[in-house]
Amino acid sequence: MELVELVERMSVDDLWDLHAEIGEALAVRLAAEKNVLEWRLKQLTTKPYVERRVATSDRRRYPPVSPKFRNPDDPLETWSGRGNQPRWLAAQLRSGKRMDDFRVEMAAE
Q1: Which H helix or E strand runs over 27?
Q2: Are 47 and 55 in contact (CB under 8 A)?
Q3: Number of Cβ atoms within 10 Å of the Cβ of 68
Q4: Pairing with 31, which of 4, 63, 72, 101 sits 20 to 30 Å away (CA)?
Q5: What tens digit of pLDDT does each residue of 14-43 get?
Q6: Contacting residues for 92 by C-beta, under 8 A, at least 6 apart
């Protein structure tokens, strides 16, 4: 028997009861689907643990350091000796010069 024939044979009261049951079942399923979608959205918008930890960690502030090396070709280029070697210094060292050739003379010394 087809569904249409079955519905045509039902009384108005039976159809109304069926309508109420379908509405309740639909509301339950929609609420469950909404919860799943909200959970997935939360997973997408939450940063991974590593990024959260790095973003919230406070770095210790270091005082400014005076330059210890100066580029003879451009005296405005200096290096404190911390971090990566600047390109100008690496190029000069490859050409055979020594680190002491670029050391800044301290006024107190």
Answers
A1: helix 12-45
A2: yes
A3: 15
A4: 4
A5: 999 999 999 999 999 999 999 999 999 888
A6: 71, 101, 102
Query: What is the rounded distance in angstroms from the CA atom of residue 24 to the CA atom of residue 106?
Result: 84
Under 8 Å between Cβ of 68 and 104: yes
- d(CA 82, CA 87) in angstroms, rounded, equals 14
Residue corresponding to tokens 């108005």: 12
Whether 8 and 15 have beta carbons less than 8 Å apart is answered as no
Nearest to 82 by CA among 96, 53, 62: 62
- Residue found under tokens 């070697």: 85
| Global confidence as pTM | 0.43
CA 28 remoteness from chain centre: 36
d(Cα 79, Cα 103) in Å, to the nearest integer?
9
Q: How far apart are CA 20 and CA 13, in angstroms?
A: 11
